[in-house]
Design goal:
This protein is mainly α and 68 residues long. It has three helices and no strands. The relative contact order is 0.08.
């Protein structure tokens, strides 16, 4: 279990974790890659319908893998 406010990223104080850190950064960058304009507009409209922000909606997609 991680501490409150922890982002799940690699620990910064461990030695020899360069590979894990690199993999995590690469996955994070890939997950937050800018989608095509049409997809972003569709997500924004859906987020507004649900009363949440675009970022919150995108986080739900990333966590659950569901596009509703």
């Amino acid at each position: 279990m991680t501490a409150t406010g922890h982002n799940g990223g690699p620990p910064l104080e461990d030695e020899g974790t360069a590979w894990r850190s690199w993999v995590w950064k690469r996955a994070h960058k890939k997950a937050w890659k800018t989608p095509p304009r049409e997809v972003a507009l569709r997500r924004l409209a859906r987020a507004e319908e649900l009363g949440i922000t675009y970022k919150e909606y995108t986080l739900e997609i990333l966590e659950r893998g569901k596009y509703r």
